[in-house]
Amino acid sequence: MALPKLTKLELQIMETLWSRGACSVREIQEAFPAPRRPAYTTVQTTVYRLETKKALRRVKRISNANIFEAAISRGDAQGRLIDELLGLFGGRTKPVMAHLIESGKLTLDDVKEAEQTLRKLARKDKP
Predict the structure, then answer these.
(1) Predicted model pTM
(2) Quick one: CA dihedral 13, 47, 22, 76, positive or negative?
(3) Which residues on neighbouring strands pair with residue 66, listed in sequence order?
(4) Cα–Cα distance, 22 to 27 (Å, whole number)
(5) What sign for the dihedral angle of Cα 38, 44, 49, 54?
(6) Is 14 in contact with 54 (CB distance < 8 Å)?
(7) Tens digits of per-residue pLDDT, 50-80?
(8) Contact, 61 vs 67, CB < 8 A?
(9) To the nearest 10°, the Cα dihedral for 75, 13, 84, 71?
(10) d(Cα 75, Cα 82) in Å, to the nearest integer?
């Protein structure tokens, strides 16, 4: 199944479900910081769109409130975003890596962890 493309608000809603687990629309809406909290109906509409996209699913109903949980993982959603970002650069990773290094967002520890991951992948590829 192809992963759905998610908007910023959809990702914020998914983040609530990933961090808190199953929630009602009201609980999702109240998880947003008060000064910039979207309206209940906005969150409700977005949740139902996410359900249509199969990014989340309804797990139960308590009284008149539906309870939803994430149907896709945080890692899968992040992977889709990263693939989209790299697509903007023609699949080239060097411009992205250069920016991360120059902005100070890529640390030496990050590089060491990436090297370990590459070594593990190289070992798996060997027959």
Answers:
(1) 0.81
(2) negative
(3) 61
(4) 9
(5) positive
(6) no
(7) 999 999 999 999 999 999 999 999 999 999 9
(8) yes
(9) 50
(10) 10
- Helix or strand holding residue 29 (H, E): helix 25-31
In the numeric block, the tokens 């199953």 are attached to 22
Which residue in the block uniquely carries the two structure tokens 């896709």?
72
Q: What are 9-57's pLDDT values in tens digits?
A: 999 999 999 999 999 999 999 999 998 999 999 999 999 999 999 999 9
Half-sphere exposure of 102 (CA within 13 A, CB side): 6
Q: Nearest-5° angle of CA 38, CA 40, CA 46?
A: 75
User: Distance of alpha carbon 69 from its chain centroid, rounded?
Assistant: 14
Which domains are delineated in the chain? 1-92 (1.10.10.10)
